[in-house]
Amino acid sequence: MRILVANVNTTQSMTDSIAAQATQAALPDTEIVGITPRFGVDSCEGNFESYLAAIAVMDAVVNYQEPFDAVIQAGYGEHGREGLQELLDVPVVDITEAAASTAMFLGHKYSVITTLDRAVPLIEDRLKLAGLDARCASVRASGMAVLELEEEPERAVEAIIEQALLAVREDKAEVIVLGCGGMAGLDEEIRKRAGVPVVDGVAAAVTIAESLVRLRLSTSKVRTYATPRPKTVIGWPITAADVPAAP
């Protein structure tokens, strides 16, 4: 089984970190391939960057030349999962939905700890759109920019733990979700300090993607995520020939 893990930004070192976390969570017979968009921004922290990343990730996935069995979009609260589901005939798993749905198996309510405060509304909207908001106690910002997570991991852990403890104490959260792909690998230390289950979206998404492939299940194509109708696309490498034919 081969799973593509698509970073939403252009920082290669972050792609490598996310892919390493995915590999650690994967079964022995699963091959993880990290892919980095060929255009976009070095970190996604707002609507403009998120919409740009959505196009860049679709471009990167469609232009991947080898066969693959599933795709993980490794951006928390980012746009684009729906487009991938239309373009592909394999399962597409977004780490936002994977982490939140996993958290609901572990406690009554969960809280998301993300990066900057400006990302909070995006995450709240994505959770609401996915129908996962009812059991979300809060979405809290650590105040750390995405690239700072990599540059200052110790300070990042302390900032996340501070908000996690507040979420447990003040918001009555029973599970903490790491709300950024760049937080991959920080879950164990935060779990020890916060004393509650901590869900890393990358690891959760890998497990879900593997399960869907093994169950031979993929996105329904009868309506919402039907294959795009053939049209002329101007100024972008994706053409009708790149889109799988409708069954």
What's the arrangement of secondary structure elements?
Elements (H helix, E strand, L loop, with lengths): L1 E6 L4 H14 L5 E5 L11 H16 L7 E5 L6 H7 L4 E3 H9 L6 E5 L5 H10 L6 E6 L4 H6 L1 H18 L4 E4 L8 H8 L3 E3 H14 L33
Parallel strand pairs: 1-2, 1-3, 3-4, 5-6, 5-7, 7-8
Q: Could you walk me through the main structural features you see in this protein, from its secondary elements to its overall organization?
A:
With 247 residues, the chain is of the alpha/beta class. It contains nine helices and eight strands. A four-stranded parallel sheet has the order 2-1-3-4, sandwiched between helices. It has a four-stranded parallel sheet with strand order 6-5-7-8, with helices on both faces. Strand 5, helix 5 (120-129) and strand 6 form a beta-alpha-beta unit. Helix 2 runs parallel beside helix 3 (81-87). The longest helix is centred in the middle third of the chain and has 18 residues, at 153-170. The mean pLDDT is 91.
Q: Helix segment count?
A: 9
Question: What string gives the helices and strands in order?
Answer: EHEHEHEHEHEHHEHEH
Terminal Cα span: 22 Å
Beta-strand segment tally: 8
Q: Catalogue the unreliable spans.
A: none
Mean pLDDT: 91
The backbone outline, from C-alpha atoms, is: globular
Radius of gyration: 17 Å
Helix content: 40-55%
What's the main sheet like? 4 strands, parallel
Class derived from helix and strand content: alpha/beta
The strands making up the biggest β-sheet line up spatially as 2-1-3-4
| Proportion in β-strands | 5-15%
